[in-house]
Design brief:
single chain; 329 residues; alpha+beta; 13-stranded mixed sheet; three-stranded mixed sheet
């Protein structure tokens, strides 16, 4: 729990976000649940920023409270962090922007309790949702869903990657919301990959029928099995492509497959898969793209040896859960 809260805060501070996202994240920070873990994460943030507070910090913090409806008379209803940590909150919530998306706008606290299911790096997990649908969640992924689906839809929120096998219910569409994409299904199987650190969000239809919509856009896609919608976060452009379903679902079988991936993209995936951190100079790799395929039981050492031989650009040393990479001289 501690690691995923720290990860959410780190991702949020490193990217751009809208005012609505700012509001939702700040409300999440003020919530009592996992309060101690949030305190620790904010303390870490404070230390990293060295407590650099300018004259506008406190005004910014008060503006955030006003935006989320926490007035001077109602603040006692919320758990407030020590003021030095609140300064850190103000700095990253008000002044730092990003693509991190975490919204619960369609849920009302009095009618639906949200369950947080976080799958740490190096793990995957398959379980049944309250409506009888099944979800297989990839490593480094956060899934939010209610303890009971009420209202006209079955909506869940995804940060990361998961495969959904949806129980058919024509009267209550199943919706997965991730970043600025929403995927709607009536009865189907599909995969959504939306890690906040990745440059693309990909929704792939395995069987059935899905509709893909984007926030602040009237455009939508209806997919047939074997198709995927790829959304580029940087350009805000999307397109439909034919998908290799064996590659898309490889992670569920424990396999690791890369197609046309840069080394930086590959290392991000390996970090999640093996719960390892790569330390390297960003100039070590170019934008060259590679294809790799590794079987279920391949360990990180074997993978590094293959990539080293193929690229010929680095040497490496693995020490516990850190892999140090250097340029070949």
């Amino acid at each position: 729990m501690k690691n995923y809260i720290q990860k959410i805060i780190n991702v949020f501070t490193a990217s751009e976000h809208s005012e609505n996202v700012t509001k939702e994240v700040h409300q999440w920070l003020l919530d009592e649940e996992h309060a101690d873990e949030k305190d620790i994460a904010l303390s870490t943030l404070w230390k990293e920023t060295e407590g650099k507070v300018d004259a506008g910090t406190w005004t910014s913090l008060e503006n955030v409270y006003d935006k989320v409806g926490v007035s001077a008379g109602t603040k006692k209803r919320y758990r407030l962090f020590p003021w030095k940590y609140a300064a850190a909150v103000a700095m990253f919530v008000v002044t730092v922007s990003g693509t991190f998306w975490l919204t619960k706008n369609t849920f009302k606290e009095e009618t639906a309790a949200m369950i947080e299911q976080y799958i740490p790096d190096g793990k995957t997990y398959e379980f049944e949702l309250p409506d009888g649908s099944w979800v297989h969640v990839n490593s480094g992924t956060l899934l939010l869903y209610p303890d009971a689906f009420k209202g006209d839809t079955r909506t869940v929120y995804l940060i990361g990657e998961a495969d959904f096998k949806v129980k058919k219910n024509p009267d209550k569409p199943f919706i997965v919301r991730s970043a600025n994409m929403s995927v709607t299904a009536l009865g189907t199987e599909f995969n959504v990959a939306a890690y906040p650190e990745d440059s693309e969000i990909v929704a792939t239809l395995i069987q059935g029928k899905i509709k893909v919509n984007y926030e602040q856009s009237d455009h939508s896609y209806i997919l047939r099995p074997g198709q995927q919608v790829v959304y580029n976060r940087k350009t805000a452009q999307s397109k439909i492509e034919e998908a290799d379903l064996e590659d898309v679902t490889a992670w569920q079988r424990g396999q690791i497959v890369f197609r046309g991936s840069t080394m930086e993209e590959i290392l991000l995936t390996l970090e999640r898969r093996f719960d390892i951190t790569f330390q390297y100079n960003t100039k070590l790799f170019t934008t060259d793209e590679y294809n790799f395929s590794f079987s279920k039981n391949t360990d990180i050492g074997e993978i590094m040896e293959v990539m080293k031989e193929v690229t010929g650009k680095f040497t490496y040393k693995i020490d516990k859960n850190v892999c140090y990479m250097k340029t070949v001289k």
